[in-house]
Design brief:
- The chain has 256 residues and is of the alpha/beta class.
- The protein has a single domain, classed as Alpha-Beta Barrel (TIM Barrel).
- 48% of the residues lie in helices and 16% in strands.
- The chain is built from 11 helices and 8 strands.
- The protein has helices at 15-24, 31-40, 59-68, 81-90, 117-129, 142-150, 161-168, 172-191, 207-211, 223-232, 234-250; strands at 9-13, 45-49, 73-77, 94-97, 133-138, 155-159, 195-199, 216-221.
- It has an 8-stranded parallel β-barrel, surrounded by 7 helices.
- Pyridoxine-5'-phosphate binds next to strand 8 and helix 10.
């Protein structure tokens, strides 16, 4: 289906507000305050990744976000028993399963669903039973999409990191090939009945072609927005991203 006449949702990832706070310990900057500001600036949801090593978002942050937000929380987590118990306790609107390696700086690749189909099918069942919308973060790869569909996930999030890296490194042929792959796989997943989201590494320069993909319903963006916020403020950085997304969606150039 073509959803380009529908508003593309923006989920703002606030992990790196917590990164800055944790660099010194203490209470500021406060991720909930950032989330409320993001909400006021046009975020349709807030995303937060509780990592096993708690390097940014903490358990107390998740609790505060659950209590304080009036937009949906997308709770990113690894598929571990510890995280499943936390998600079942809080019952966030959405749970996004991501691969997690202790030594990585950020979520480097998509989840290997195809190799772990059985375990993941059992893992997501109780989350779905309590009403969480389960999303699986995967590469734009037909095998992984088919596996995500088979295990009963209603949503996939396509990893845009390879597309963004190719752009940043000036490898424009590779970037365009990645974009083509994302376009084909978004359409393929939508045909299977999956809701398609996308994210990772998106910036003002790279967001438009992804926002224009007719089957993508939501983008999750964090690190770039938080960096830009240091110069222009969080509200302005989010408003500009929102304007670029909306312009790409409508096919009209942005005045932002
Ligand atoms: N989507 C998922 C599943 C992620 O893991 C992340 C990073 O935590 C993002 C989106 C946002 O990526 P970035 O911070 O690079 O915008």
């Amino acid at each position: 289906m073509d959803y380009s006449d529908q508003k593309l949702r923006l989920g703002v990832n606030i992990d790196h507000i917590a990164t800055v706070r944790n660099a010194r310990g203490g209470d500021y900057p406060d991720p909930l305050r950032a989330a409320l500001l993001a909400q006021a600036a046009g975020a349709d949801g807030i995303t937060a990744h509780l990592r096993e090593d708690r390097r940014h978002i903490t358990d107390a942050d998740i609790e505060a976000l659950m209590d304080g937000l009036s937009v949906p929380l997308n709770f990113e987590m690894a598929a571990t028993d510890e995280m499943q118990a936390i998600a079942l306790r809080h019952k966030p609107h959405a749970v996004c399963l991501v691969p997690e390696k202790r030594e990585e700086r950020t979520t480097e690749g998509g989840l290997e669903v195809a190799r772990e189909e059985n375990r993941l099918a059992h893992f997501i069942a109780p989350l779905r039973d309590v009403g969480c919308r389960v999303s699986i973060f995967i590469a734009a790869d037909q095998r992984q999409i088919e596996a995500a569909h088979r295990i009963g996930a209603p949503v996939i999030e396509l990893h845009t990191g390879a597309y963004c890296d190719a752009h940043a490194e000036g490898r424009f042929d590779a970037r365009d090939a990645e974009l083509e792959r994302l376009r084909d796989m978004a359409a393929f997943a939508d045909d299977l009945g999956l809701e398609v989201h996308a994210g990772h590494g998106l910036t003002y320069e790279t967001v438009a072609p992804i926002a224009a993909l007719a089957q993508v319903r939501e983008l999750n963006i964090g690190h770039f927005l938080m960096g830009e916020a240091m110069f222009v403020g969080l509200e302005a950085s989010i408003r500009k991203m929102r304007a670029l997304m909306d312009a790409a969606r409508s096919g009209k150039p942005s005045k932002a």
